[in-house]
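Record type: monomer structure entry
Structure origin: computed from sequence
Chain ID: A
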Amino acid sequence: MLKPGSTIGILGGGQLGRMLAMAAAQLGYRCIAYAPEKDPVAGDVCADLFTNDWHDAKAMAAFAQKCDVITWEFENVPVEPLAPLTQRLAPHPRALETAQDRVLEKRFVENLGGRPAPWKAVDDRGDLMEAIERIGTPGILKTRRDGYDGKGQWRMASARDAEGFNRTGTPLVYEGLVAFEAEFSVILVRGKDGAVRYWDSPHNVHESGILARSSLPAPAVVTEQVESARALAKQVADALDYVGVLTCEFFATRQGPVFNEMAPRVHNSGHWTIEGAATSQFENHIRAICGLPLGDTATTGSAVVMENIIGKAAAKAHAFLADPDAHLHLYGKATAREGRKMGH
């Protein structure tokens, strides 16, 4: 068990790191963040901040020297510079390696018996035409790496769209569209002893590829498939010997749950747990990586809705406070760009 007063290192400086640091402070830990970008919002609530490049080995070593345990807040942290940090990292970086490459992720899940959408790796236009012929249209062409919130994705309505597509040199994956009835996520926390707890699965609604809201209770089409989805998510966590919060996103279909993607970290669809569950995803992640007992994940209200505040909507966000049941979280971002998550 990591004693209070110990230091937790957070790789990444966004809102997830910010909320992790706030949860850690509540448990008596101090946090430092490592984030190459200018003025990361996690830095506002951390005791120290490194704004060096990911590949700056000297800075990374100095950062690690100050930490008793290190975690991350987003999955696109380069894996190679983390090799010297492995003994202090939680989760293990193999979770990053798996989640960063959509093809590796899909093969990994299939080997566990999971069912992703029909897919094919695409390296050139010939591969794309073959994928469309085999899988059909409509479909989604995605970058194998680095995409999030709808970025790095192109809809293919027909083979004609593929004929005009020019993205040579970028590894891609083509996925057939899934006829789903709802989207949902399985959010779990796994301790160092292998114990697993689940939060209730929210119904997720995306707009323009970005999560707009997560709500509970989820409709029957989701709740009927949660047990099966949880079983796969636990297999993923166990296979990775995972420690911390893990999120797996699913499509609810008439044929059962279809795996969409995994996020080896705290997740936007779990923000409702801050006020809506006995223990939030952020606190339980800190508990897990510090070797503390996991907290109760029970939902505390009869209904919970988490709404993302995106872009310029942040300017009017304080109006939500007129509702006595509302809880406002703004992330401290200076610029409200279109599609940018400013709070919830």
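Annotation 1: The chain has a mean pLDDT of 96.
Annotation 2: Residues 118-176 form a domain with the Dna Ligase; domain 1 fold (CATH 3.30.1490.20).
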